[in-house]
Amino acid sequence: MTAVATRPRRSNALIAGGLLLSAGALLAVCVASVMLGSRTIDVGDLAGSDLTVILDMRLPRTVLGVLAGAALAVSGTLLQGVARNPLADPGIMGINAGAAVAVVTGILVLGDQEAGANVWLAFLGAGAATATVYTIASFGREGATPIKLALAGVVVTAVCSSITSAIVLSSTDALEELRVWQVGALAGRYWPVVLQVGPYIVIGLIAAMFLARQLNLLALGDALAVSLGQHVRRNRVITFAVVAVLCGAATAACGPIAFLGLMVPHLVRLVTGPDYRWILAYSLVLGPLVLLLCDIVGRLVASPGELQVGVVLGIVGAPVFITIVRLRRGVEL
C-alpha cells in the first residue's frame, strides 16, 4: 500500500519526461555557468589563460553550485515532509543561525583563520543546531510533532542570532568575516572547498532518495503511519540527520542562501503533486538549475563586477514564491 494514489501510466510518463527535460536544461545551464561571466569565454578559443580560468575558477564554482543547489532543495523537501510544515526550510529551522554562531565564535576564540576552517565550523554549528531543534521538540509524550518542531526552530534561531549579534558587536574581525560569509555566494569558492563538502553532500543526497516512501507515509499522519508499520520517531531522526548533513555542508561552503529550500519544493509540487518520490527527484535537478541561473544573472547584470547569488535569489525568490503559493491554493502539501 502506498501513501499516494497511483497515477495513470501516461501521467507518470509525462512527469518522467519533464524530469529528463529539466536534466537537459541543467546541463545547458552548467555549460553557460562555465562560459559566461565578467569575461565571456569562446568555446572555440580555449587556450592559455581562458583554460586556467575555467579549470581553476569557473568549474569549481559550477560544481559547487550543482552540489549546494541540490543539497538545499532536497533538504528543504525533507524538512517540509518530516515536519509537515510547508514553510520549513534551513533558515526557519535554525540551521543557518547555528552555522553563523559557530563561525563567529571560532573567530572570537581562534582569531583569523583560513576559509577552510570556517567551513568546518559552520558545518558543526549547523549540525548542532539541527540536533538541538529535534531534541527540544522531542520532549513530551507525543515526541517531535510538526508544531513543536517549528516552535523549537524559532527558539534556536532566536538564541543563536542573539549570541551572534553579541559577538560581532564586540569583535571587528568577527563582524567582517560574518559580513563576507553571510551574504551567500558561490564566488571565491575553489576546489579545496568543493572537495571538503562534496563527499558529505553526495552521501546525503543518496540517503535522501531512500526516504521518499517514509515521507509519503508521514504525510498521512503519525497514527496512520504507525498502523502501516512505520517507526515514526526513528524515521524522523534519520531524516533530520540527513538534513543536518546536507544543509550543514551547503551552508558551510556557500553561506546561508535563502528561499531555495523553501521555494523549489513548492514549485516541484505544481508538476508532480504530493508524491515524494517525484518531489525529491525533481528537487535534485531544479535546485541546482535555479541556483546556477541566479548566479549567472548576478554575474551578467553587474558586469564587470557581480551580485552574489544569495542577493539575486532573495530578490527573485520573494515574488516567485508568492506566485507559486497563489497557484497552489487548495493543492495538497
TrEMBL record:
* InterPro entries per record: ABC_BtuC-like, ABC_transptr_permease_BtuC
Does the keyword Acyltransferase belong to this entry? Answer: no
Report the superkingdom from the record: Bacteria
- Localization of this protein: Cell membrane
Keyword Transmembrane helix annotated: yes
Keyword tags: Cell membrane, Membrane, Transmembrane, Transmembrane helix, Transport
Q: Which Pfam families match?
A: FecCD
Q: Which CDD domains match?
A: TM_ABC_iron-siderophores_like
Q: Where is the signal peptide?
A: none
* Predominant subcellular localization, coarse grouping: membrane
Q: How does it sit in the membrane?
A: Multi-pass membrane protein
Gene3D superfamilies to which the protein is assigned, alphabetical = ABC transporter involved in vitamin B12 uptake, BtuC
Annotated membrane-spanning segments are 12-38, 58-79, 91-111, 117-137, 149-170, 190-212, 237-264, 276-297, 309-327
Which family is this sequence assigned to? Belongs to the binding-protein-dependent transport system permease family. FecCD subfamily.
What protein is this chain from? FecCD family ABC transporter permease
Record the organism.
Answer: Promicromonospora alba
Q: What is the lineage of its organism?
A: Bacteria, Bacillati, Actinomycetota, Actinomycetes, Micrococcales
